[in-house]
Amino acid sequence: MDYQDILYAVEDGAAWITINRPERMNAFRGRTCDELIHAFGRAGWDRSIGVIVLAGAGERAFCTGGDQSAHEGQYDGRGTIGLPIEELQTLIRDVPKPVIARVQGYAIGGGNVLCTLCDLTIASEKAVFGQVGPKVGSVDPGFGTALLARSVGEKKAREIWYLCRRYSAQEALAMGLVNAVVPAEELDAEVRRWCAEIMERSPTAIAIAKRSFNADSENIRGISSMGMQALNLYYASEESKEGVRAFNEKRKPDFRKFSGS
Ligand SMILES: CC(C)(COP(=O)(O)OP(=O)(O)OC[C@H]1O[C@@H](n2cnc3c(N)ncnc32)[C@H](O)[C@@H]1OP(=O)(O)O)[C@@H](O)C(=O)NCCC(=O)NCCSC(=O)CCC(=O)c1ccccc1C(=O)O
């Protein structure tokens, strides 16, 4: 597959998969998800690879979720909501290798969900985390909510989703959303150190450990697939479209005119 939206590189047994859309703050469209799926499949089943790093190009963002300019109702790709996001999310869990999120700027919306799904997250002290769904007419009703609660606890996960605040790297560390925070200029070196340590460990023991962690939260896969069906209906609504339009028109959304449920 020809990559347009991502970069793929291998370094000392680590596959670095980088979302390369810095002009869109590394937001993903349908094509980006397809390329990521291809790259994770390639790295995940290559026996010479022991660890996978997921990164975003540029300084400003790791990833800011779905590309709002590719989204009026459904997104522009395949899958239940026009993005094969379910496939990507489950693949990050299914590859039998640790996946490290390398976060240097915003990890917002679906970008924060990707961090949540990665086995480990290493952040620059300039990183900013948060969900924005209820501000922009979206939600990730599966791994984005339920798995997040496993990392940060129910109360904090509900706060993150209902209020859509932004959290600093130190706050993310304190709540268990990330594993380590380092100065921006040391981020790559720190990620490489973690990769090198993992490369010294037994790959089979790690694969079994990963699968056993996954097994305990596997029911969330079912919640996700049911949730995506609901999300598809929500995306067709004027309430959701108001969120997307407001973001693109750089104004506050007016959600109060919709009664909700
Ligand atoms: C990331 C921000 C907090 C940055 O704010 P700020 O520093 O003030 O910069 P801005 O001026 O807002 O943005 C600069 C520039 O980048 C563009 N941009 C940023 N994010 C996106 C995006 N996601 N899509 C398209 N473009 C984006 C922005 O328009 C500006 O462009 P200019 O040309 O310079 O004007 C802030 O930008 C922000 O909050 N962005 C919102 C991101 C967003 O809405 N993401 C989708 C979130 S949906 C969600 O959270 C839950 C859904 C979810 O996880 C999911 C589940 C299942 C399927 C899909 C998704 C999904 O992620 O959609």
UniProtKB/TrEMBL annotation:
Q: Name one Pfam family in it.
A: ECH_1
Gene Ontology MF term list: 1,4-dihydroxy-2-naphthoyl-CoA synthase activity
Q: Keyword Lyase on this protein?
A: yes
InterPro entries named among the record's database cross-references:
ClpP/crotonase-like_dom_sf, DHNA-CoA_synthase_MenB, Enoyl-CoA_hyd/isom_CS, Enoyl-CoA_hydra/iso, Enoyl-CoA_hydra_C, Keto-benzo_CoA_Hydrolase
Which reaction(s) does the protein catalyse, per the Swiss-Prot or TrEMBL entry? 2-succinylbenzoyl-CoA + H(+) = 1,4-dihydroxy-2-naphthoyl-CoA + H2O
Please list the residues that bind substrate.
64-68, 75, 106-110, 138, 235, 250
Question: Pathway membership of this protein?
Answer: Quinol/quinone metabolism; menaquinone biosynthesis; Quinol/quinone metabolism; 1,4-dihydroxy-2-naphthoate biosynthesis; 1,4-dihydroxy-2-naphthoate from chorismate: step 6/7
Superkingdom, taxonomy of origin: Bacteria
Which UniProt key words apply to this protein? Lyase, Menaquinone biosynthesis
PROSITE patterns annotated for this entry? ENOYL_COA_HYDRATASE
Looking at its record, which EC class is this enzyme? Answer: lyase
GO biological process terms on file: menaquinone biosynthetic process
Important for catalysis (site feature) positions? 75, 235
Family annotation (SUPFAM superfamilies)? ClpP/crotonase (SSF52096)
Query: What EC number(s) would the UniProt record show?
Result: 4.1.3.36
Leader sequence segment: none
Q: What family is this protein classified in?
A: Belongs to the enoyl-CoA hydratase/isomerase family. MenB subfamily.
Question: What's the stated role of this polypeptide?
Answer: Converts o-succinylbenzoyl-CoA (OSB-CoA) to 1,4-dihydroxy-2-naphthoyl-CoA (DHNA-CoA).
Q: What is this protein called?
A: 1,4-dihydroxy-2-naphthoyl-CoA synthase
